[in-house]
Write a structure and sequence with these properties.
alpha+beta, single chain, 4 strands
C-alpha cells in the first residue's frame, strides 16, 4: 500500500508507537522520586559520612542525603535554574526530533526512556527543592566516587546504550 494513501495516525497510535519509551520514562521517574522521598524521610539533609550515613556495605556503599545544585560531578554548581531550563529544552528537543533520533526502534526507546525519566526526575528536584537530591555514595579505597541517584544512573545507562547502538549500527 502506498504510504501517502494511508489514513493519518490517530493520537493514540502515535503514543502507542513510543510506548516502551513512555513506560520506561515513567517507571524510572517514579522509582527515582520514591527513593529520594525515602532518603529524605529517613536521613536529615546534609547527612554525609559517619555516624549518620547508612552503611549498606561498610567501607564501600553508603546511603547519605546531600543536594547538588550542579550537573554531573557538580559541574555548573549553583546553576540549578540554568540546568532546569536546559532539561526542559532537552526534553523538548527529543520530542521535536524524535523521528531523526530513530525513536521508533526498540533499543532507542529503551535508551531514551531511561534518559527522559532521569532528566525528568532531576528536573522535578530542581523545581521542588532547588537542588537535586543525591544519596548513593560509593568508596573505592581512598577514592570517593561522586554521589549520585537513580535518575543519574538512568541518564548514564541511557547514553551508553544509545552510543553503543549508534556506533555499531551500519550506515
Amino acid at each position: 500500500m502506498d504510504p501517502t494513501l494511508a489514513p493519518p495516525a490517530t493520537p493514540w497510535q502515535r503514543v502507542h508507537a513510543y510506548r516502551v519509551l513512555l513506560v520506561l520514562a515513567v517507571a524510572l521517574f517514579v522509582l527515582d522520586q520514591a527513593t529520594k522521598a525515602w532518603i529524605a524521610g529517613r536521613l536529615p539533609y546534609g547527612t554525609y559520612g559517619e555516624p549518620g550515613a547508612i552503611a549498606v556495605v561498610p567501607g564501600f556503599f553508603y546511603l547519605i542525603h546531600v543536594g547538588n545544585t550542579g550537573a554531573a560531578w557538580s559541574m555548573l554548581t549553583g546553576k540549578s535554574g540554568l540546568l532546569a531550563i536546559l532539561a526542559v529544552a532537552t526534553l523538548g528537543a527529543i520530542f521535536l526530533w524524535r523521528r531523526a533520533l530513530g525513536l521508533r526502534a526498540l533499543i532507542v526507546q529503551v535508551s531514551f526512556g531511561l534518559l527522559c525519566g532521569g532528566i525528568a526526575g532531576n528536573l522535578s528536584d530542581r523545581i521542588v527543592h532547588g537542588h537535586v537530591i543525591d544519596f548513593i555514595d560509593l568508596h573505592f579505597g581512598s577514592y570517593v566516587y561522586p554521589t549520585f541517584n537513580v535518575a543519574d544512573s538512568g541518564i548514564c545507562v541511557g547514553v551508553v546504550i544509545y552510543l553503543w547502538h549508534t556506533l555499531r549500527a551500519p550506515e
